[in-house]
Specification:
The chain is elongated. The protein has a domain at about 10-55. By secondary structure, the protein is α+β, with helices and mostly antiparallel strands. The longest helix is centred in the C-terminal third of the chain and has 10 residues, at about 45-55. The protein has a 3-stranded antiparallel sheet with strand order 1-2-3, with no helix packed on it. It has one helix spanning about 45-55, and strands spanning about 10-20, 25-30, 40-45. Bound molecules: zinc ion (ZN). Zinc ion (ZN) binds next to loops.
């Protein structure tokens, strides 16, 4: 993930924990190793919906849940 400020590719994860309201999501805090700015990110398990469709044998598309 690129730094939103300076575009540096080198970013690190400072913190990683489940979302307080939806623990299928992970809230992370990243920071840039060059300019030092930090920002929060949210990770959502996208492929789970595809796996659910295969398990259920359904071809309909499930809408991705947007935060
Ligand atoms: Zn930066």
């Amino acid at each position: 993930m690129l730094c939103p400020v300076c575009g540096n590719e080198k970013t690190k994860v400072d913190d990683s924990r489940p979302d307080e309201k939806d623990n299928t999501r992970i809230n992370r805090r990243r920071s840039c190793v060059r300019c030092g700015i930090g920002w929060p990110t949210r990770e959502v398990p996208e492929n789970i919906y595809f796996e659910m469709m295969k398990i259920r044998g359904k071809t309909e598309k499930l809408n991705r849940i947007e935060g």
